[in-house]
Amino acid sequence: MRINVAPIRFANSELTKRVVETLGRVFRFPVDTAALELDLDAAFSKERNQYYSTKLIADALGKTGDLEGKVLMLVDFDLYVPVFTFLFGEAQLEGKHSIVSVCRLHEEFYTGKTDDEALFQRTMKEALHELGHNFGLVHCKDWNCVMHTSRGVEEIDVKGAYYCDRCAERVPGFVKSAAV
Amino acid sequence: MAKTPKILVVDDERIFRESLLAWFEEDGYDVDAADCGEDGLKLFEKGKYDVILLDMKMPGMSGIELLAKIKEIEPEAIVIMITAFASVQTAIKALKDGAFDYITKPVDPDELAHLVDKALRQKTLTEENVELKKQLDEIVKPDNLVGDSPEMKKILDLVQTVAATDTTVLVRGESGVGKELVAKAIHLNSERKYFPMVTVNCGALAETLLESELFGHEKGAFTGARHKRKGKFEMADNGTIFLDEIGTVSPKMQVELLRVLESKQFTRVGGNDTVTSNFRVIAATNEPLEDRVKEGKFREDLYYRLNVFNVFIPPLRDRPEDIPALAEFFRHKFASAMNKKIEKISPAAMDFLKSYEWRGNVRELENAIERAVVVGKGDAIEVEDLPFHTRGERADDAENETSLADVEKRHIHKVLLRNEWNISRSAKTLGVDRATLYNKIEKYGLKKPDAQ
Known about the structure:
The complex is a heterodimer. Chain A is built from seven helices and eight strands. Chain A has helices spanning 13-26, 40-43, 53-61, 108-111, 116-134, 153-158, 165-168; strands spanning 3-7, 31-33, 44-45, 50-52, 70-75, 79-80, 89-91, 97-101. In chain A, a hairpin with a 4-residue loop joins strand 3 and strand 4. Chain A has one domain (3-171): Collagenase (Catalytic Domain) (3-Layer(aba) Sandwich), CATH 3.40.390. In chain A, helix 1 (13-26) packs across helix 5 (116-134). By secondary structure, chain B is α/β, with parallel strands linked by helices. Chain B has three domains: 6-136, Rossmann fold, CATH 3.40.50; 150-314, P-loop containing nucleotide triphosphate hydrolases (Rossmann fold), CATH 3.40.50; 318-444, Helicase, Ruva Protein, domain 3, CATH 1.10.8. Chain B is built from 20 helices and 16 strands. Chain B has helices at 14-26, 37-46, 63-73, 88-96, 109-139, 150-163, 179-188, 207-215, 232-235, 251-263, 289-294, 300-306, 323-337, 347-355, 361-375, 387-391, 395-400, 404-418, 423-430, 434-444, and strands at residues 6-10, 30-34, 51-55, 79-83, 101-104, 169-172, 197-201, 216-217, 229-230, 240-244, 265-267, 274-276, 280-285, 309-312, 344-345, 380-381. A five-stranded parallel β-sheet of chain B has the order 2-1-3-4-5, with helices on both faces. A five-stranded parallel β-sheet of chain B has the order 7-10-13-6-14. Chain B has a two-stranded antiparallel ribbon with strand order 8-9. In chain B, helix 6 packs across helix 7 (179-188). The A-B interface holds A 48, 54, 80-87, 93, 133, 138-139, 141, 149, 151-152 and B 13, 15-16, 19-20, 22-23, 25-28, 105-110, 112-114.
């Protein structure tokens, strides 16, 4: 098992680096960045000014056959699926691909103030959350578990950055003590 | 463990349907989906869903049409409409047709999650409510109104008749005959049964306290009124107010009561706002109200206002045939409550109970049986378990016995009961021979209780 973190038009290399390093400590298997080019225009909605996340995952499916393990895409633009107004991320349940948008994880989005630490914490939680879906986990009722559903950024802040003991049983190589 | 909530999604647009399906699955729900109204209806008829999400506009059977069919099959079904055409008219039409709520596409995930949570909570509460009402319906039979006498049957008939109406009832009878039980039976058999029956013992409260008790008070209305408090009339909204010992109410309060009973409106003590309450009145008294009216102590208009429907409960001594059933009812009640294996009342004890005068009526009988169950050691209540057995002659009993023959009759009867009608033992106790005792039994018409 390994995790490939693929930044897609993602300018914040510092954040990518911290996420890869932290995931590397949190899991007992290799975590590294991977280069991935997606057809972003095809997934863009002019009306909504958002990117259709399911289309991006579908595009990635055909371009990552050579990558072993999971593929976690990091983007900085806003995501949607037609039925919902926005998404923090999307993942294939028990699948290989997931995508996390940090667009609505920026503190600037809500208060106009920059908070890099909050951005990092939120990104880590969303990354672990979407990876959890890849490992077959559904939402957890435990408010401290990273698999608890988050309806807003406040709820991301409130929940823990680790899998609860029950969820952790389904995540191979998870090191709870190393979680942020 | 609680069962996984089941959700049905009906939407003709595959992308919408699948996104919702995946989203609900991630949230741990059990989800089914259909791409048209017809298939949605088939799924609904087969499965039991907690929440149904319907797209308003679909080719073929529309969401609105499907909503109507679902409501026809299951009026309690919780349906959330999804519409891409957020118009007030369609939403109102759906709500009028019984939809729980509606949500517009694209859906705010937060809003949908809250809506589904709310819908599921409502579903649980509705189901609990139905179950509780069912249980309540089972216990509302006036079980405590026990008795086979014609008088008791008449009372039960009156209860049934008057319960169906909203008429004011005046329950009359001596202390301890069960006036509150009759009031409760009327309330529990009326349409007001799911609302409270509020009891006020008018005789137990001073005039000023009674006023605040009945009408409530505002904060600071008097010393010690630190908070606003609802009165009993307000608490009895949609239910019944039971005014016990109405004959003891002061003339001033009688005026107030008359006004409230007529208008169903009042103001809290120290307040200006008019409070309206929809209550039914059942009053009770052990006093001859007519005499009080003649004496000028009870307002005639209030008397007529209360005495619309009269239920009179005769004293227990006038319906001795009810004693065995009541005694058995209380024996069972207290033996169960105290977890004691007392399964019957001995024939001698029952005969004793039947011959006793019960000045305190059913309440006294209840207390006597409770005591007997407490002290009883065997599987039956015996004469010696009854409280008056050791108390000796009651002063008032002795007063009523005017002749020596009365005293002799009573004494012989008691000795016979104590010895369970064993003639030899009783004769020995009385210091007479068996033949003399037989003569006395015949002379006084004493009868051995029937074997049970």
